Amino acid sequence: MANYKVIGGDLKPYGPVSAEDLCKWIAEGRLDAQTKVQIEGTTEWKLLGEIPELAEALKNRVPPLPIAPPAASARTSGLAVTSLVLGVLGLFTCGITALFGLVLGIIAVVKVSNSRGALRGGGLAVAGIVVSGVFLLLLPFFAAMMLPALAAAKQKALAVNCVSNEKILAIAIKMYADDHEGQFPPAATWCDAIKPSVGAEAIFKCPAANSSSRCGYAFNARVSGLNETNIAPNTVIIFESDGDWNRSGGPEQMIRSPRHARVFVVAFADGSVQQLRESELSTLRWDP
Questions:
Q1: Residue 16, preceding bond cis, omega within 30 degrees?
Q2: 3-state SS of the chain: helix, strand, coil percent to 5?
Q3: How far apart are CA 222 and CA 218, in angstroms?
Q4: Is the pLDDT of residue 102 over 80?
Q5: Which of 26, 42, 170, 226 is most exposed, with the fewest beta carbons within 10 Å of its own?
Q6: Stated pTM of the model
Q7: CATH architecture of the domain with residue range 3-60
Q8: CB atoms within 10 A of CB 90
């Protein structure tokens, strides 16, 4: 049996090799019918398919299986991740973000299902839907817990505003005294007397009182026209009242029920302001 030279895939000649070796290479898929071979002792190059003794090996050759391209790696759906995150945040937002988490979770499930494997994260989307749904169901419960707290916070804010108003009024009274040889303003016209020092008339209005009233405070008539040096520092000078502009008097003019979270706001002759509970009102000093 003749030996052969063969042109390899790198276009370089190899051999001589036996026909048996060529048949083996054909079976391995290293050679095909278009491979050039040369019978030893000749100068002519022929196609391998033209050599009769190798033709049978070519017929029996099993073509190599095509190599499938690697499948593209599926990416995780951003909507699915966002849905779960918003659902969990519902714990800190009283369920508000859970509404968006539920919507995005449903959209994510549809997109993952229709992606034919290009997207993953269906489980995350379902988890986002479930978590968001739970917090939405709990939303009325959260609201029931928050409303009393919000109402209490509003009352405290109004009380702070009222304290600020009375503080300004008390300072204005002391400024009036400084300009009038130490005497406090007359009870009958106290609002008019200190208004230039107060500035905005809104200071005379208690934020929790009737908005139609020009003034939500009253002046302790017992200190009217007295010299500041003759008035004890802890004597009441301004207190909350249901009266109106220039209202003055004593304890009978004080509001009967508190306006701000169960406290009454009272200003004293030394310029301080306190929030007092009803049980503490009996300790107030009205006489100078």
A1: yes
A2: 50, 15, 35
A3: 12
A4: yes
A5: 42
A6: 0.52
A7: 2-Layer Sandwich (3.30)
A8: 25
